[in-house]
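Task: sequence design from structure.
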């Protein structure tokens, strides 16, 4: 039976302007965090999965890291590689669902960034993402998962938000399913009188849940940080960086 197309297939075409919401300063801080915690010296290999338009992949490549970017969006991969070519950089781009990557013992480090995890209705599929990344790492390789913190959401919950990015007005209306720890939301994009809406659902995680999932997959030496300044994770941490190492 053919797999049902997920919400992300159409959503990320309209979502493209939202990349502009992240400041260059924030991206620089995240890149420095990754370089420090993943020991990303020149010639080390890094798997950025999913990579989007290369927000993290491009500055890492500029530092001499050998980057492979994976995304299911052909348009995003094409844009990343056009930007890389314009800057004189080389990044390998792969169009693939992150559950379907087939690398094995290939990368010194890997990352899944900006809450690009928890997309799948079946928890086994979310676990499969971790298993595929684990397999892709060399023994001793490190992985960082960067996601919004469920505990912060519960302390700061709002039923709607709106913002503007690159001339597009974006409205998000949301509800939270406590039984499954899933955020259900409707995203509406408005530009030049045109409107499009998408239903989105993302499984949200607390730090202790991610520790258990990392251990289940096989990661060791698991650490967590609530900021790029290495603050500990608490209910005041909007985002979490969870890091694990594949045993040697």
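Answer:
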């Amino acid at each position: 039976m053919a797999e049902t197309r997920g919400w992300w297939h159409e959503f990320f075409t309209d979502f493209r302007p939202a990349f502009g919401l992240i400041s260059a300063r924030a991206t620089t801080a995240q890149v420095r965090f990754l370089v420090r915690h993943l020991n990303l010296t020149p010639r080390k290999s890094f798997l950025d999965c999913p990579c989007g338009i290369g927000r993290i992949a491009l500055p890492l490549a500029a530092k001499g890291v050998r980057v492979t970017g994976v995304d299911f969006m052909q348009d995003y991969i094409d844009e990343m590689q056009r930007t890389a070519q314009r800057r004189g950089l080389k990044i390998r781009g792969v169009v693939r669902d992150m559950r379907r990557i087939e690398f094995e013992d290939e990368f010194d480090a890997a990352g899944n960034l900006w809450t690009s995890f928890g997309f799948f209705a079946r928890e086994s599929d979310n676990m499969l993402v971790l298993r595929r990344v684990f397999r892709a790492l060399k023994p001793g390789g490190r992985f960082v998962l960067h996601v919004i913190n469920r505990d912060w959401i519960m302390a700061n919950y709002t039923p709607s938000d709106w913002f503007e990015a690159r001339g597009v007005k974006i409205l998000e209306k949301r509800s939270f399913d406590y039984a499954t720890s899933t955020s259900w939301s409707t995203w509406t994009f408005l530009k030049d009188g045109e409107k499009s809406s998408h239903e989105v659902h993302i499984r949200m995680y607390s730090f202790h849940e991610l520790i258990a999932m990392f251990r289940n997959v096989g990661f060791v030496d698991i650490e967590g940080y609530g900021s790029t300044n290495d603050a500990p994770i608490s209910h005041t941490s909007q985002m979490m960086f969870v890091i694990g190492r594949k045993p040697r």
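Residues 8-148+206-245 form a domain with the Rossmann fold fold (CATH 3.40.50.150).
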